[in-house]
Amino acid sequence: MNIPTKPLLLFMLSAHAVSSVAADGVDNTSSGPDTQQWKCKYCAFPAGLRGTVDFGLGYASNDAFKFGEYNGINQHSGFLIGDAELTYFGEEAKYWTMNATDLGLDSRALNVEGGKQGAFKVTFGYKELPHFIDAAVATPFVNGGSNALTLPTSWVTGTATSTMPALDTDLQSTSVKTKRKQLQASASITPASAWQYSIAFHHETKQGTQATAGAFFFNSTQLIRPVDYVTDQLDAAAAYTGNKLQLRVTYSASAFRNHNASLTWQNPYTALLNADAGQLALPPDNQFHELQLALGYQISNDTRVTADIAMGRMTQDQEFLAPTLNATLNAVAPPRKSLAGKVDTRNANLKFASAVTQLLRVNATYIYNDRDNQTPQAAYAWVSTDSFVNTPTVNLPYSFTQSTWKLRADYRLLKYLHAAAGYDNDSRKRTFQETEHTRERSVWGKIDLQNWHSMDVSLKVVHGKRDQSGYAPLTATGVIENPLLIKYNMANRFRDSAELRVDTAIGDKLTLGAGINVARDEYPDSKLGLIYGKDLSYNADVTLLLTHTTSTHLFASREEIQSRQMGSSNFSVADWTGHNDDTINYFGIGIKRSKLMEKLDVGADYTVTNSHGAVMVDTGTLAAPFPDLVSKRDTLKLYGTYRLADKISLQAAYWYEQYHSDNWMLAGVAPGTISNVLTLGQLAPIYHVNVISLSGRYQFK
Amino acid sequence: MRRFEQSNKIIRSAVANHKLWIMILMSFALAVPMLAVAEDTPATSSTTVHSDQVAAYTSKGADTCIKCHDEDSEFPVFSIFKTKHAQLADSRTPFAHLQCETCHGPGANHAKNVPSDKHQAPIIAFGSTSKIAPDGRNPTSPTDQNKICLDCHRGDARIDWHASAHERGDLACVSCHKLHVDRDPVLRTASQPEVCYRCHQKQRVDFNKPSAHPVNFAQLACSNCHQPHGTSNAAQLIKPTINQTCYSCHAEKRGPVLWEHAPVAEDCTLCHSAHGSVHSALLKKDPPLLCQQCHSPSGHPAIARTADALPGGSSAASGFLLAGGCTNCHSQVHGSNSPSGHLLMR
Predict the structure, then answer these.
(1) pTM, two decimal places
(2) b/e map A554-569, b = 16+ CB within 10 Å
(3) Is the pLDDT of residue A512 over 60?
């Protein structure tokens, strides 16, 4: 990989010059005012225990997997409410804090921090994060979620799902979900006012199941695979903060381990070529180590340079699986026992910023990102779906290098009018791909009106053009793409975008904000593949302070995402067009009233999200339209807090949500609907749920 | 001058030969002399007072301020005493120095009595410039406000604040942070997104889409992926690249593996919308159209799949279209380490 030397040299020289001017780092200041009478006798300095503890009960009226997707309120049942926010300030700046949330739910978290302010700090944290993916899927395998899926003894294979006689009777229902458990501990010390050393350790387990699939020839089966991951992360850092120089050096190490190397499953179809079992590789163990230096230097009051440089290495060397479980095949062993995968990462962000005059500011940024894949290449005689041996194919370790210049100037035309313009030059190089080099040049301009007749207005316009060095379909992959296809991440492209935002306040009661964003991509030289994309969004916000104790808010947003692509069914010129149009509307209104009868705070929020995904594939002949991909969510939340006594209050909340979705990829697709895909019979989520909660709060003052 | 030219020559030669390693070493080497100079002047709170300002300080410090700014005033201040800023025993804090006037500047003129139809003399005030001076008085600019905060908080995550997107957008620190409260909402996972949504309304929609990262479940904050104080990379991410940011939580995708899927190794956002999507798994669109954007070989991957192949349609229900679409067979779309995973089927 060649590294452009000019930006590097520029940065080094600027840093070189820095050392010569660093000596003037001492402010010429006098002693402070006479503070002998500054007794601070009315100051209520922090001391003792303060905070809140909440305990109570909640109840959900229905099963609703999607509703509790990440918090665990997914079943018709009661649940415990437990939250706490406590802080203790002791003598000599000693303190501790504790935050506990959702103790009664699957998303429970506890964080504790303590130390002596300005001297040292230790933290401890524990968190659980569930992900409820599917409430009920159907599979004939008796041990769904294990790493070796077996069919029941009553199973009778068939050439298609329609000829599997025991399919209906052998199906078993199971859910698909994962849960992360995170443990973290950290310590930092500040031995001198400018220095800080810290070390942090993070341990995470992720367990559960996920959906996947495996095929034999064109007969496929959706499977439930196990998830049993462990990820450990260590970060050690030293940081210096001076008046002119700020510095941080960090060493990071991350190790990922998967307790399951593979997933094997019995072939539920009539086995051809003795392929009665298959084996999928699961994510292998890997490691990442990185050294990072972040540095900022204030050359003068008006000029600053910063650098963020990182060098890392990703490695993976897990022993290979056998090419196949089919003992009747003469499969050639892999040319090596493991991959010895190695990717070196090099990243640099260098920035020079200066206020040339009081009105003009300029900055130049150079970004360099390199993923240098040094994984050895070899020819692997691979086995197609455990059925037959293929011609050896050489692996392609992809490397990427990004090199970007950004120049920017900001000019204050008037006290309230600020203009900015910039030029970006983004160069990307790839190995083993159809295009070796792309370069995108962008120009942009921005106008900001600030505090102009109580109004802020911002308008930004960007135009970019990307060119490639040439496009040649690959042959090394063994899959020959249509020569008219240009993959969109490497295609010539025009990219235009504009953003307009207006915020204003009418008196001190009413604030209004509105914005429009539009971004459009065109691929003028692409005959097949993605040729057009557009994202248009509008949004508006209103906040009204009705009285000193009552406020309302309202917002509305709409987003339209459109794309067009061309395809060729006959490996020739384009003969079909694909349209994908997504529309999302989001609306919300809320009101809050505090100090009702001096003791009661109440509020209500209502939101509606309505999204549609329209797909059309135009082949020039009359075809049935796709049904829309639909989701609609209505949410009403009512909440209130009543102060029973000085330190005790009662909190009540009611939450109603209804959700309807429709997905043509899943609608009507039972496990046996598709002749050559034994599916899980997933369903698009539909639910309505009422959740009530009642809790008491004790306040430590 | 001669020494400078010599340095240039050496640097050019070294860079040509040793590329990025030199950059690292030089940065460290340069840091050492800079550090030696800077060590005498560690960042401190704003206790350095220019002589012409001394007379303008109040005679009794915070006691002067509190007399007016009690809990019933328009600008109550007592909550500052619930925060780390009001810790006397920590020599770095504002209250260990000039109390309120450490941040708000000399307040003697501001504290003077004025007729009821007049305004108090201005003082350094923190907030949106359009709100803090409705009467047209000269507000404190965001830049001047921020200088006061950065006097102490210029290191660590704020190293890249200068010339960052938020700084160039004239945001004040207090545009996002609240200082006079027990707990700053922007530092809490549950309440941080609402602070960000005040300007980033498009992202508010994203996280309400059917498939989204769990920001609205209070399980993830914007700052888990973004560094709001500035980085030079795309979207101010916490890591140098998009993929490295994603690997923070999805380390199983990191690899490298034997059979890589090129766009996966390049940029996760080529297929996924990072915030949220109408389509499952935060995909930009569903297969097969998603895959057909980049794949059009001879045979089944390139064939137009129409609604005729839906259940009950004029042709048989198609596994190329329904359930997982392409992933019904090519399930290892993130790459495979199996010797037989060349077509991402094992």
Answers:
(1) 0.91
(2) ebbbbbbbbbbbbbbb
(3) yes
